[in-house]
């Protein structure tokens, strides 16, 4: 199933082949997407696919009167992920998810990411459950009008603004408001926000390097709704950068100036 272009996953080209309580299977093209700050191939958009397939597994385990809200997302990539994706530019990444354990106050979904039958990564999404608002309430914003065609390039897909860095290596990327990027709750889609966090964290560990470090893991915690506005942005700060590895922290700061999402990225030179 193709998703409408005026939805977050539709904009990123996600197609869902199977979606039920026992699992979810979907694809997304990523080979053409590069980090808008470094210009290097980006694995950050894989977070969109992870959020979709592993999050849907949790969503299908809810009852009609509750919502499943993501609280954690993790992405792990293989050392050869970037090379395998680049070697198959016309083959989308396939995500196959399944539920893990029982559903209590939370639920856990995990997925495997493959390209041409080669495993390039894994991911998990943990969700917790909250009471659903009544139909017709303001918690259900109106859908934006349908789009004719999606933008081209990761910065355009994310509707990212200008990037900036300081002498300490901190990198900032503006997240401009765009209703197409919002989920049904009217906040920036968790997978897209996770992508923004990977973009700035990767740029932070690679500042001034000629031998790039490649993202191996991204671990995200969702703290509060991430609202896009004039001041919304992603901020990546290097924690430790060595010759062959690096660690960076990242934050998504909402229009209200509050930290909405945090992440830690680990990268290596392969």
From TrEMBL:
InterPro entries: HotDog_dom_sf, PAAI_dom, Thioestr_dom. The keyword Transmembrane does not apply. The keyword Transmembrane helix does not apply. It holds the Pfam family 4HBT. Keywords: Hydrolase. Residues 185-259 form the Thioesterase domain. This is PaaI family thioesterase. It comes from Mycolicibacterium arenosum. The lineage of its organism: Bacteria, Bacillati, Actinomycetota, Actinomycetes, Mycobacteriales.
């Amino acid at each position: 199933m193709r998703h409408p272009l005026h939805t977050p996953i539709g904009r990123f080209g996600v197609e869902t082949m199977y979606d039920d309580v026992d699992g979810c299977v979907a694809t997304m093209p990523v080979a053409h997407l590069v980090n808008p700050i470094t210009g290097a191939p980006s694995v950050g958009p894989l977070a969109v696919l992870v959020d979709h397939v592993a999050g849907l597994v949790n969503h299908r385990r809810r009852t009609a009167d509750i919502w499943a809200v993501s609280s954690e997302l993790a992405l792990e990539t293989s050392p050869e992920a970037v090379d395998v994706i680049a070697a198959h530019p016309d083959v989308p990444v396939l995500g196959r998810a399944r539920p893990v354990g029982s559903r209590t106050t939370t639920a856990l979904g995990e997925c495997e990411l493959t390209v041409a039958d080669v495993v390039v990564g894994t991911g998990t999404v943990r969700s917790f459950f909250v009471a659903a608002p009544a139909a017709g309430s303001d918690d259900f914003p109106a859908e934006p009008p349908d789009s004719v065609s999606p933008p081209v390039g990761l910065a355009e897909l994310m509707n990212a603004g200008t990037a900036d860095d300081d002498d300490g290596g901190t990198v900032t990327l503006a997240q401009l408001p765009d209703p197409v990027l919002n989920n049904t709750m009217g906040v920036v889609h968790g997978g897209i926000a996770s992508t923004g966090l990977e973009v700035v964290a990767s740029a932070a560990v690679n500042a001034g390097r000629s031998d790039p470090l490649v993202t191996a893991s991204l671990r995200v915690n969702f703290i509060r709704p991430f609202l896009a506005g004039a001041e919304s942005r992603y901020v990546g700060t290097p924690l430790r950068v060595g010759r062959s590895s690096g660690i960076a922290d990242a934050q998504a700061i909402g229009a209200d100036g509050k930290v909405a999402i945090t992440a830690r990225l680990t990268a290596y030179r392969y």
